[in-house]
Amino acid sequence: MASIAPFHAVRYAPHLDLAAVLTQPYDKIPPALRADYAARSPYNLVHLTLPDDSVAQAHGMDKYAWAAAQCRQWLHNGILIQDTMPSFYAYRQSFDMFGSHYVRSGFIGLCHVEPYERRIIFPHEKTLAKPKADRLALLRAMRMHCELIFLLYEDDGTAPRVLDAVMHQAPLIRMCDDFDVENELWRISVPQHVEALTRALAPRQLFIADGHHRYETSLNYAHEHADDPRAQFTLAMFVNINSSLVILPTHRSVFGMPNYDASAVRRTLSAAFDIAPAGALDALLAAVNAPHDQLCIGWFDGRSFWALHLRHPDAMRAAAPQRSEAWRELDVAVLHTLVIEDVLGISAQEVEHEAGIGYHRDPREALDAVTSGAAQCAFFLRPTRAAQVCDVARGGEVMPQKSTDFYPKLLSGLAMYALDLEPHQPA
After folding, report:
1. Where are the domains of the chain?
2. Cβ atoms 89, 148 nearer than 8 A
3. Distance of alpha carbon 239 from the chain centroid
4. Beta strand pairing call for 100-112 and 233-240
5. Beta strands 233-240; 149-153: pairing state
6. Does the chain have fewer CB atoms within 10 Å around its N or its C terminus?
7. Which CATH class is domain 250-382?
8. Parallel, antiparallel, or unpaired for β 10-12 and 173-176?
9. Can you give the pLDDT at residue 423?
10. Contact at 8 Å (CB) between 92 and 164?
């Protein structure tokens, strides 16, 4: 089923300070963090993954061509080097959250891209058109995968046993990132370990936890270059689905609605929801995350906080009869179906093209968007559970955009996949 492979990774040269060059994934880098990364080092990965348009234009190029030129120069100057042995890479992240210590382990390798209809690799989220166009333009220019797609798998314990054996050794890399997450990397090049990992995942199905835009970009690129065997693979991190997985909610702000009237919206919402006032944001978040029989969504209408309790699941059955029960039970599906589409009148097509909806990991950021006047209202959700991700994906359905936020993010630049470098040749 799944086809994975070791590869000759491109990595930063060992003399470089990794804290100065590695980054969060491109879509988790707001402008202030991008500026910080860019200032840390001229070789920070952000210069490739989020190239500066003005700098590129000053050199007579578009930003994608500029990133490609920078990448070639770094390879030529030995800033980036290629490992001489085909390898997988064990990757472990350790962090504290919610008063508990978590350790998440997996391994980095290549994954053969497959159309979703083959039911080998499953998505669980819809994607947005603009980021895919951006990432495809960058991949066409650079011919290198710098960032990881996060894939979940299930196996009989073979892969975790290999990783445990490898991780008893001293790591190749150890660094603490900006979010106090300890990141460690080990090379896996012993043939029996490489074979064991390849064999362990061969009969498995894979679920995209994070990186849907990057995966679909890789798939589009593979179709464009059907005669290029290297283009048929993308770069991924493989994590056992039974690992310690932390999923955070992604809250929404809504903007650009003509004639927005909070009182009218509240009256319309009352057809499907019991609406209770909540004094402030912390009280609202507590209500949303409290265990109760009724699904609860938080709403800041621009002046007041409200807890929206779904009165009966029949409302979702009527609104989305073609959907599975697993999909209809998702908090984010209820929000998009009964509130964003039915009440606020923002269509799924508009959401796909990022019209009218803002996404926020930090609930206070969503609140600030409203109080600053950038948005008209905000909605707050509890996290999607890992079991829900798999149930929906196996059913062949996808969730609305930004339904899950797996934490922590996989660092970009640890191990990269260059399509044009010859194997066994140092860069």
Report:
1. 4-12+49-245+408-418, 250-382
2. no
3. 14
4. antiparallel
5. parallel
6. N
7. alpha beta
8. unpaired
9. 62
10. no
Angle at 321 between CA 320 and CA 326, to 5 degrees: 75
Can you tell me the distance from the alpha carbon of 342 to that of 346, in angstroms, rounded to the nearest whole number?
Answer: 8
DSSP 132-179: HHHHHHHHHHH-EE-S-EEEEE--SSHHHHHHHHHTTSPPSEEEE-TT
Q: How many CB atoms lie within 10 A of CB 324?
A: 14
Question: How confident is the model over 318-354, as pLDDT tens digits?
Answer: 999 999 999 999 999 999 999 999 999 999 888 877 7
Distance of CA 41 to the CA centre of its chain: 25
382 vs 385: CA distance, rounded Å: 9
- Compute the distance between CA of residue 385 and CA of residue 403 in angstroms, rounded to an integer: 10
The whole-number pLDDT of residue 426 equals 42
Structural contact between residues 351 and 336, judged by C-beta atoms closer than 8 angstroms? yes
- Exposure class string for 211-246: b at 16+ Cβ within 10 A, else e: bbbbbbbbbbbbeeeeeeebbbbbbbbbbbbeeebb
Distances (CA, A) of 44 to 11, 19, 79, 176, 362: 12, 9, 10, 16, 26
Please tell me the predicted confidence (pLDDT) of residue 427.
41
pTM: 0.84
Which alpha helices (DSSP H) does 377-425 contain, by range? 386-394
Least confident of 16-20, 173-177, 239-243, 361-365: 239-243
CA distance 31 to 38: 10
Report whether pLDDT(307) > 80: yes
Q: Which helix (H) or strand (E) holds 221?
A: helix 212-224
Instruction: Write down the H helix ranges in 225-362.
Output: 262-269, 281-289, 314-319, 325-328, 331-334, 348-352
d(CA 174, CA 91): 10
Rounded to the nearest 10 degrees, what angle do helices 212-224 and 129-142 cross at? Answer: 50
* N residues, the chain: 427
Structure tokens at 54: 């003005």
